[in-house]
Design brief:
NADH Oxidase, alpha+beta, Nitroreductase, 10 helices, Nitroreductase-like, Nitroreductase/BluB, four-stranded antiparallel β-sheet, 11% strand
């Protein structure tokens, strides 16, 4: 079987200085919204930033939040490790476009059990583990990235910077009731055509077939 379209997707962190057209962005987001979602809730919202100054400022916001959160850590090794992630959490700053994906409300069986208060909260919480509301966002993001790769664009799935979600949303002036920043991706033409992906686990390590 030929799944070459999947193999075209790489995590791209460096981009050419070429703008992405509004029409291309709209087509990619449209592809994202074709993803399946639990109860067809489609609880996603896409915010696209194309102003380079704004993208640079978002990176600065992430850097500041990283430094702030590090002050709440005690172990020096953890502090150093966490501060070291900031370079990875701001790789989007060189991209011509930044897509932020927000997740909206999604009521689960856990929410209903907790609300009615008959089942102990600790027991009810185990039904929240699948978290379909976030799975919907993940499906949409995967669609977007595969679609982008199929037409020569690079992306990079990012959730690390979301620790600055509130600050980023406030800066952009985006406020949609019940929605929170769940993931983001830079978007642009890869700076290099020599792209690679880290090795995947052997299939026998991740597959169980029960006849």
């Amino acid at each position: 079987m030929d799944f070459e379209f999947i193999n075209k997707r790489y995590s791209v962190r460096q981009f050419k200085d070429e703008q992405v057209t509004e029409q291309t962005i709209k087509e990619l987001v449209k592809a994202a919204t074709c993803a399946p979602s639990g109860k067809n809730q489609q609880n996603w919202h896409f915010v696209v930033v194309t102003d380079k100054n704004k993208i640079t400022e978002i990176a600065r916001i992430v850097e500041a939040k990283n430094a702030e959160l590090a002050t709440y850590l005690r172990d020096e090794k953890k502090i150093k490790g966490f501060k070291g992630t900031v370079a990875y959490h701001t790789v989007f700053k060189g991209a011509p476009a930044l897509i932020l994906v927000y997740a909206g409300p999604y009521e689960t069986i856990a929410d209903m059990l907790i609300a009615d208060g008959i089942m102990p909260r600790e027991e009810a919480m185990k039904y929240a583990k699948p978290n379909p509301g976030i799975q919907n966002i993940a499906a949409a993001m995967e669609n977007l990235q595969l679609a982008a790769a199929s037409i020569g664009y690079g992306t990079c799935w990012m959730t690390g910077p979301t620790y600055a979600a509130e600050e980023i949303s406030t800066y952009l002036g985006f406020n949609k009731a019940g929605y929170h920043l769940a993931a983001m991706t830079p978007l642009g033409i890869p700076a290099s055509d020599k792209l690679s992906s880290p090795p995947r686990k052997p299939l026998e390590d991740v597959l169980t077939i029960i006849g």
